[in-house]
Amino acid sequence: xxxSPVRVLIVEDDPLMQLGLxxxxxxxxxxxLVGMAExxxxxxxxxxxxxxDIVIMDIxxxxxxxxxxxxxIKAALPNIHVVMLTSHTAETEIVAALASGxxxxxxxxxxxxxxxxxxxxxxxxxxYLDPQIAKKVVEHLKPPTxxxxxxxxxQRELEVLKLMVDGKSNPEIAAVxxxxxxxxKTHVRGIMNKLAxxxxxxxxxxxxxxxxx
Length: 213
Description:
The chain is an alpha/beta fold. The chain is built from ten helices and six strands, in the order βαβαβαβαβαβααααα.
């Protein structure tokens, strides 16, 4: 198991937010802050130079917004994971951010635990959506349509899928359903296989479009 600290770059233009994030992340020994950038262009340059594991990215940045910056980072270094941390909650921006390659989406003002969960999920190659964001993702998609594939899911898989839609991480799902994290991981993999999707966001979209939640 890799126990090396997660290397994090923060791209944020608000000095108070920068300071708050820096002080908060210092409380977590599993996280190492490797750099700070105050606009989108500098964020891209820092990401290419420092090659962090995670970029915490605001959307409303000077010169180059966080969505465009994420696109550039992902195009050059697709293995870097991007966690959006923003006050923007418009559906168009959420969808655009995810389409640009963002791995997780957090809302400023939410608990620090959610940000840490988003960082951990992104580092594992999973996706975290703030609970108030998850249901907005589908508002710019087609109207709800039935999905025959949902009928292939077991009752337990449906329970896991509903919690995924709520933005819960694997450990949180395990705690709610009294399962081991490995069992949850197996269920998540089975859900994605049966729904023919590549990640948790797509699975949540299928569930929402099908009227499951």
